[in-house]
What does this fold into?
Amino acid sequence: MKLGGQIVTFVIAWAVLLLLLGINVLLAYQPIGGLHGFVPIGIAATQAFIIMAIFMKLRGRPSLKWVFAGAGFFWLMILLGLSSTDYMTRAAWPL
It folds into this structure.
């Protein structure tokens, strides 16, 4: 890919990341009920995939890089899952 094509790809990815960030900020102030925890996590996962595919240059490469990137992402999900179980099992703070 030529340098001009890479710049266009990076600018488009940056614009999509900013759009997803704006949607995330707007949804933070909207009453969306029970989806209030799942939608931001889905948006963050989409942003992480865009960053991995475009900026880490993993797109279109069936190689060992995907294995290690996936292992790191899997480990992050384990850490977030364990942290969230600790947070959800705590008693509420007294007011």
User: Anything to note?
Assistant: DSSP finds three helices and no strands in the chain. The chain has one domain: 3-88.
